[in-house]
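Hey, sorry to bother you again with one of my protein questions. A protein chain has come my way and I'm curious about its shape. It would help a lot if you went through both lines with me. I owe you a coffee for this, so here goes:
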Amino acid sequence: MSRLGEELKRLRGNRTLREVEKATKISNAYISQIENGKIDEPSPHILHKLAEYYDVPYAFLMEAAGYLKQKQPVNNNSKQANIGGLEAALMSEDLTEEEAREVKHFIQFLRLKRGAEK
């Protein structure tokens, strides 16, 4: 089984393939083929729909499918030194759950875009 298939199966948990199909408009047979490794590289728009449904970063599924390379771990000390004013403001601001999700998706989009430009 592929890494993507394993991750999708794990994310689906107790939900049935039909439940996922109904919510995403992706056929349950196609999802099953991805989960069982028969389809290794589904199109990015399929991965985007699944990422939204499972509320995981799109880049996570793109990486699991092999479209993106896994990032190297960042040294925590240098990461702390790079926290700018905007990041500090976002961490201190009381965001609603929806606002936090939107900020998270936007940051993931920017990182994905930055990775594509390299």
